[in-house]
C-alpha cells in the first residue's frame, strides 16, 4: 500500500511506486545507489516528495507520496522502540529543491524516535543531488535534541550504517544508564500543568500531583508548567510546546505524561494521536491509586465502576491512554467494529457492577442497623488525604489500621471502639481522605464511606497543620462536606502533627480556628481532645 496522496497518479506510476517495496538495501548501506536513482527519478517525474521507511535489515516498510513540500509519515506505533529508545527505522525522502531538513523533519525524527531522518535533493534531471541527514542525541547539558550532517553529493556519503547505528545506540544507552535505572520496573512520568491560575496555585497543585504519582508508584522525571494566554482546546497546551515536551520526555525515556488538569475526551484523543506515550490526567491517576488500594469487595466494585464510567467516553481507536488502567480493555489499534464491541462490553459490565453494588448496599445497611441498635455515639474521622486520620484512629483506639505516608492509604472504612472511663464508649470510624478537584463521580462511588459519615453524630475534621497548604485543605474538605450534604453534622476541627509546628504557631492557629491540637504520634497530647469528646457526649458527667 502506498501512503499519502495518490490522487492524480497514473496506474503505471502507482505500480512503479509499489515496486519500491521489493527493493532491499544491505544493512551497512543507508540507501543503495540504484534505489536512490529510482526514488529521485520518480520524485522528479511526479514533482512530489517521495519517502521510504526502511528497517535495520534494509527492507522497505513504507512507501510514502507527499506533495512538493512535505510527506506525512504514517503511524509507526506498530514498530516498538528498542532498549536504546530508537525505533529501528529510518526515513529517507526526497527534497525537490535540494533544501535542508525542515523543522517538521527534525520534529518527526524526535517524535518518532527514528534511526535517521534523511533528505536527498533531486537534481533537475532527476538524479540524486545533495544529502542532509540527522540523528538523535542523548540527553546533554545544552539540551540539544538532534545532530545534523550534510554532504554536497549523495554519492560522496561514506557511512557504514550498521557501525554508525551500533555506536549511536551504545552512546544512547550509556548516557541513559547514568541517569536512570532501566531495570527499575516503575513507570517514568513527566508531570504537566497548564492553566491560567497564579503560578503559586499551579505549583501547589503540581506538588500534590507529584505526591499522588509517588503514591501510585510512579517515578517522576520532570515537570512542566505552562500558563498560556489562551488555552488550546485541542491539546490544552500549545501544539508546539506539547511536541517539545513529548520530545524531551522521549529523550529522557519517560513512559507516561500526567496532566494536572482533567482532559476532555477530545483532548485525550488529540494528544495520544501525537505520541505513543501513555497519557493520564489527574482523575485517572487518583482512580489508579484507588484501584491499587481497594481491598474489600465493596471498594473494588466501586472503583472499577468509577474507572469504567470515566473511560467510556474517552475510548479512542488507539487505546494506549487506557492500557495502564484498563489492562485488556481498549487494547491498541482496534478497528471501529472492535471498538464498538469493547464499548458494548463496558456498558454491560457497568450494568452488572451497579447491580452488585445495590446488593452490597443492602448488606451494609443491615450491618449499620445492627450497630445503631448498640446505641453508641458515632464519631467519623474525616479530612484531607494524608492528614493523619488513620494514625489518630489507631492511637486513640490502640488498633492497627494501615497508616502510611502515601496519599489515599485508606480506602475502606474501619470502625473501632474508643473506651472512656466509667464504661462509656464511642464508635470511631476512619474514612477515605478528601482531595481538591476530586474526580467527578468518585466520591459518589465511595458510598460505603459516605454512609458511615451520614450516621455520625460528630465529624472529627483532622487537619495536617504542618502542611503549608493546610488552609486550602480545610476549605477543600468543607466544600466537599457541603456538596455531600454533610455540613449539617456537628464538626470538631482537630489540628494534627503539632509536633512538627512551633508551639506559638499552634496556639495561634487553634485560637483562630477554634481547633483542638493533637499529635497523633504522641498519645500524651490527646487529653484536650478526649475531654472535648466527653463533654460533648456526656456533658453532665464529671470528667
Ligand atoms: N510527625 C507526625 N506525623 C504524623 C502525625 N500523624 C500522622 N503522621 C504521619 O502522616 C502520614 C499519614 O498518616 P495517615 O494516618 O496514613 O493519614 P490519613 O489521613 O489516614 O491518610 P489517607 O488514608 O491516605 O487519606 C503517616 O506517615 C503518619 O506517620 C503526627 O501527629 N505527627
Ligand atoms: Mg488513612
TrEMBL record:
GO MF entries = GTP binding; GTPase activity; metal ion binding; ribosome binding
Keyword vocabulary terms for this entry: Coiled coil, Cytoplasm, GTP-binding, Magnesium, Metal-binding, Nucleotide-binding
Query: Cross-referenced PROSITE patterns, in alphabetical order?
Result: G_HFLX
Q: Source organism's superkingdom?
A: Bacteria
What protein am I looking at? GTPase HflX
- Organism of origin is Desulfuromonas thiophila
Q: What are the subcellular locations of this protein?
A: Cytoplasm
Query: Any idea where the Hflx-type G domain is?
Result: 377-541
Q: Where would you say this protein principally sits, based on its record?
A: cytoplasm
Q: How does it associate, per the subunit comment?
A: Monomer. Associates with the 50S ribosomal subunit.
Ranked from the top, the taxonomy reads: Bacteria, Pseudomonadati, Thermodesulfobacteriota, Desulfuromonadia, Desulfuromonadales
* Coiled coil feature spans: 336-370
The job of this chain, per UniProt, is described as: GTPase that associates with the 50S ribosomal subunit and may have a role during protein synthesis or ribosome biogenesis.
One GO term describing the cellular component? cytoplasm
Which SUPFAM superfamilies does its entry note?
A: P-loop containing nucleoside triphosphate hydrolases
Describe the family membership recorded for this protein in Swiss-Prot or TrEMBL. Answer: Belongs to the TRAFAC class OBG-HflX-like GTPase superfamily. HflX GTPase family.
Q: Which HAMAP family match?
A: GTPase_HflX
InterPro entries attached to this UniProt entry? G_HFLX_dom, GTP-bd, GTP-bd_M, GTPase_HflX, GTPase_HflX_N, GTPase_HflX_N_sf, P-loop_NTPase
Amino acid at each position: 500500500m502506498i501512503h499519502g496522496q495518490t490522487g492524480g497518479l497514473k496506474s503505471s506510476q502507482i505500480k512503479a511506486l509499489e515496486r519500491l517495496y521489493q527493493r532491499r538495501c544491505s544493512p551497512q548501506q543507508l540507501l543503495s545507489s540504484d534505489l536512490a536513482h529510482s526514488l529521485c527519478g520518480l520524485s522528479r517525474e511526479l514533482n512530489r516528495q517521495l519517502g521510504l521507511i526502511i528497517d535495520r535489515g534494509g527492507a522497505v516498510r513504507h512507501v510514502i507520496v507527499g506533495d512538493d513540500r512535505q510527506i506525512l509519515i504514517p503511524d509507526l506505533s506498530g514498530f516498538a522502540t528498542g532498549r536504546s529508545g530508537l525505533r529501528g527505522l529510518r526515513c529517507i525522502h526526497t527534497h525537490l529543491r535540494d533544501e535542508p531538513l525542515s523543522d517538521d523533519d527534525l520534529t518527526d525524527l524526535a517524535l518518532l524516535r527514528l534511526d535517521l531522518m534523511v533528505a536527498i535533493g533531486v537534481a533537475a534531471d532527476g538524479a540524486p543531488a545533495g544529502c542532509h541527514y540527522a540523528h538523535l542525541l542523548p540527553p546533554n547539558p545544552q539540551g540539544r535534541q538532534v545532530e545534523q550532517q550534510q554532504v554536497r553529493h549523495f554519492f560522496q556519503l561514506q557511512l557504514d550504517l550498521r557501525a554508525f547505528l551500533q555506536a549511536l545506540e551504545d552512546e544512547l544507552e550509556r548516557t541513559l544508564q547514568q541517569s536512570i535505572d532501566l531495570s527499575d520496573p516503575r513507570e517514568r512520568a513527566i508531570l504537566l500543568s497548564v492553566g491560567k491560575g497564579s503560578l503559586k496555585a499551579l505549583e501547589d497543585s503540581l506538588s500534590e500531583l507529584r505526591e499522588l504519582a509517588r503514591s501510585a508508584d510512579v517515578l517522576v522525571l520532570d515537570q512542566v508548567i505552562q500558563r498560556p494566554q489562551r488555552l488550546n482546546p485541542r491539546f490544552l497546551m500549545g501544539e508546539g510546546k506539547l511536541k517539545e515536551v513529548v520530545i524531551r520526555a522521549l529523550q529522557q525515556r519517560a513512559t507516561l505524561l500526567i496532566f494536572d488538569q482533567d482532559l476532555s475526551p477530545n483532548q485525550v484523543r488529540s494528544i495520544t494521536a501525537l505520541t505513543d506515550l501513555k497519557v493520564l490526567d489527574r482523575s485517572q491517576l487518583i482512580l489508579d491509586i484507588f484501584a491499587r488500594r481497594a481491598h474489600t469487595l465493596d471498594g473494588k466494585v466501586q472503583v472499577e465502576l468509577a474507572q469504567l464510567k470515566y473511560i467510556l467516553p474517552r475510548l479512542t481507536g488507539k487505546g494506549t491512554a487506557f492500557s495502564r488502567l484498563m489492562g485488556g480493555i481498549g487494547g491498541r489499534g482496534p478497528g471501529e467494529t472492535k471498538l464498538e464491541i469493547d464499548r458494548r462490553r463496558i456498558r454491560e459490565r457497568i450494568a452488572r457492577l451497579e447491580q452488585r453494588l445495590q446488593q452490597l448496599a443492602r448488606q451494609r445497611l443491615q450491618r449499620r442497623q445492627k450497630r445503631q441498635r448498640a446505641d453508641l455515639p458515632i464519631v467519623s474521622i474525616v479530612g484531607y488525604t494524608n492528614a493523619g486520620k488513620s494514625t489518630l484512629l489507631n492511637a486513640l483506639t490502640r488498633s492497627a489500621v494501615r497508616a502510611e505516608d502515601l496519599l489515599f492509604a485508606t480506602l475502606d472504612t474501619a470502625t473501632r471502639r474508643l473506651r472512656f472511663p466509667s464504661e462509656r464508649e464511642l464508635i470511631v470510624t476512619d474514612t477515605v481522605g478528601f482531595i481538591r478537584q476530586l474526580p467527578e463521580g468518585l466520591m459518589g462511588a465511595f458510598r460505603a464511606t459516605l454512609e458511615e459519615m451520614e450516621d455520625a453524630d460528630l465529624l472529627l475534621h483532622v487537619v495536617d497543620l504542618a502542611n503549608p497548604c493546610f488552609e486550602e485543605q480545610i476549605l477543600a474538605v468543607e466544600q466537599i462536606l457541603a456538596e455531600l450534604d454533610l455540613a449539617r453534622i456537628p464538626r470538631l476541627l482537630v489540628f494534627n502533627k503539632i509536633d512538627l509546628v512551633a508551639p506559638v504557631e499552634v496556639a495561634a492557629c487553634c485560637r483562630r480556628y477554634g481547633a483542638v491540637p493533637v499529635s497523633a504520634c504522641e498519645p500524651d497530647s490527646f487529653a484536650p481532645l478526649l475531654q472535648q469528646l466527653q463533654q460533648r457526649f456526656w456533658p453532665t458527667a464529671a470528667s
